[in-house]
Amino acid sequence: MTTELNRADLNRTDPDRTGVNMVPVTRPRKSLRTPGSFPWFAVIPALIVAALFTIGPLVVIVIFSFMSRPPQGGGVIYEFTLEPYVNFLFQSDFLGNVAFDSRYLEVFGTSLFQATVTTVVCLLLSFPIALWIATRPEKIQNVLVLLITIPFWTNLLVRTYAWMLILNDNGIVNNAFAALGLPKMELLYTPLASQLGLIYTFLPFMVLPMYSALAGFDFRLAEAAYDLGAKKTTVVRRIILPFATPGIVSGILLVFMPAFGSYVQPVLLGGGKVLLIGNLIASQFGDSRNWPFGAALSVIILIMLMIALIFIAFYSKKSGKKVEISL
């Protein structure tokens, strides 16, 4: 009875109004899911795959670094020990005497030196390149960025072998020296060749993030500074560099860490005469068959990377500038 009266009241025409029937309005229920999104359980397979192929190998390496080495070498014995980390700084002789050993620190020092030189040279070369690209018209910028990314289309081994042809005794460089009446130089299988290979390989990793930061810069600010009497160096130092800082920090990290653990360039261009940390780790898993020690060296590099990432996050939070570690 009450329902029938309510319906009658709703459909009743009010003579004091316009004579339009009063129809109840039902509002559509708001969807809690964003349009185009998936339910949470749909991403479980992707998370499992990501965990297996990213976190899984890291967990295995960390576990292996605390395991014991079998007497015959190769593999691990599942007995907890800190010996792999102790052997990084100390060695014991047949009598059990423990002494400080700096061999592996020297390898880290050589790796640090070459990675630092690579980063500094790439930074000095990349900033003017990125700034010049960012000041070109948009269509030309796309073409120039395409030219920068062309090396990524070719396998790293192929590019490294190309440098071997350039630097060998009968290569382009020595033939140019001979044409100028200069004596030939031994360039291949030297630390210089390894350094050149690292710079060539990682230069695009510095140019692209720096260009990405400068692409959004309003260069009218620089023109206004020129109009107010500022010098070019002042404009670069006070206006352009602060805006490009996130790209510079991202590029430094993208270049330094891979160069620090590089393997291909020291082997092929350095001829095995340049021992870097990447080659040392490979030899521990290969020739030396000391998996726990190789895993411990890998963990040390991971810790260095984590410290660098924490530093980047702290800098980003303190300066208020978003730093993205991506190309």
From TrEMBL:
Keywords associated with the record: Cell membrane, Membrane, Transmembrane, Transmembrane helix, Transport
Entry membrane topology: Multi-pass membrane protein
Domain ABC transmembrane type-1 positions: 108-312
Biased amino acid composition, Basic and acidic residues: 1-17
Single biological process term from Gene Ontology: transmembrane transport
Region of interest called Disordered, as start-end residue ranges on this chain: 1-23
UniProt cross-references to CDD domains, sorted A to Z: TM_PBP2
PROSITE patterns: ABC_TM1
Compartmental location: Cell membrane
Name of the protein in its database record: ABC transporter permease
Organism (species): Leucobacter denitrificans
